[in-house]
Design the sequence.
């Protein structure tokens, strides 16, 4: 069961489509147009988007770049001691207190597509190609080192979010595209972002990425190599059906015009309650659950409630991962991350 594509909210402007030549058939128009709000407060702007489909195996990088963000990055912050947000119960209820968690990754295929968001690992000498963006004003300019056969979320014929992630282990950077289609000798995409995995810099306030929140998708994926090593040391990407306008650090972008204070914002951090027993879970599920207790989950996009993201891999035990479905929204609480902030332009946390 894959999370459906959500329609984006147009809030302030229509970005201009960048041109890129090519003889390939034109892809269908994007189902979800991003936009920026005319003004941004501690997090306001606009763009919305939903999770979609998956594809092949994410490969752990070789020596020199592990794929991890800096040790002081917010994705790797231990949130076990952070205070519970005063509106935690209301926000959890709005997501779905009785709804079950769903691991949106695994082995094999579902409806013909690998299960999860794939990562294409590219060598340092990978040829860079032009990418034209529907929302160029909030996208990092190319060229991007994305090969023509890069794995697309949901497969080559997918009509969902079609995320493409290229990981350059030599440069220790990830290149991420939303709604990506091959075009000519390059790609056409809705939006795109480049993340230096050795840095804590956030995107400009008000900017999207390949995710509605403006955050890196790669940073929040569950990868088999982590579980095989016995530990996930970062927060996990999660989707929720609806958010309110504005965004919570470290997010830099909003995807909603809703003002209901009981809705979470993009960037909101939740953790699995310490009282929830995970000891009887199969190993793969238990390691994921333990990470959600220590590092939590970050609301990154719109989609089905409590869908957590990971990369496909033939080594996943789907039966083991199903144990995560025993968790429900009521097992989570929203935490207040304000004490971690050193700067709203940085993902570095206060020690």
Sequence:
């Amino acid at each position: 069961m894959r999370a459906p594509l959500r329609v984006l909210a147009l809030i302030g402007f229509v970005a201009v489509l960048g041109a890129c030549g090519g003889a390939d058939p034109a892809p269908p128009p994007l189902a979800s147009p991003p936009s920026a709000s005319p003004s941004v407060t501690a997090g306001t702007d606009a763009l919305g988007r939903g999770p979609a489909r998956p594809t092949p195996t994410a490969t752990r990088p070789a020596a020199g770049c592990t794929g991890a963000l800096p040790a002081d990055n917010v994705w790797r912050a231990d949130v076990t001691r952070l205070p519970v947000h005063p509106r935690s119960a209301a926000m959890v209820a709005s997501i779905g207190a009785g709804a079950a968690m769903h691991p949106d990754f695994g082995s094999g295929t579902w409806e013909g597509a690998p299960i999860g968001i794939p990562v294409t690992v590219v060598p340092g000498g990978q040829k860079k190609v032009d990418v034209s963006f529907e929302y160029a004003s909030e996208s990092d300019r190319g060229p991007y080192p994305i090969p023509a056969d890069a794995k697309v979320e949901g497969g080559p014929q997918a009509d969902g979010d079609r995320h493409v992630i290229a990981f350059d282990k030599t440069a220790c950077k990830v290149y991420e595209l939303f709604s990506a289609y091959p075009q000519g000798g390059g790609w056409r995409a809705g939006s795109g972002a480049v993340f230096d995995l050795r840095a804590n810099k956030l995107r400009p306030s008000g900017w999207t990425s390949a995710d509605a929140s403006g955050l890196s998708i790669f940073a929040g994926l569950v990868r088999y190599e982590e579980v095989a090593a016995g530990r996930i040391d970062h927060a996990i990407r999660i989707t929720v059906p609806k958010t309110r306008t504005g965004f919570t650090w470290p997010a830099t972008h909003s995807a909603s015009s809703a003002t209901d204070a009981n809705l979470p914002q993009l960037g909101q951090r939740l953790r699995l309650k310490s009282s929830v027993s995970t000891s009887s879970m199969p190993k793969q599920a238990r390691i994921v659950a333990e990470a959600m207790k220590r590092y939590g989950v970050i609301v990154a996009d719109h989609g089905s409630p409590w869908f957590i993201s990971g990369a496909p891999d033939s080594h996943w035990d789907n039966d083991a991962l199903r144990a995560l479905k025993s968790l429900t929204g009521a097992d989570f609480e929203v935490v207040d991350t304000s004490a971690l902030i050193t700067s709203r332009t940085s993902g570095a946390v206060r020690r």
About this structure: The CA atoms of residues 17 and 173 lie 25 Å apart. The two ends are 40 Å apart (CA to CA).
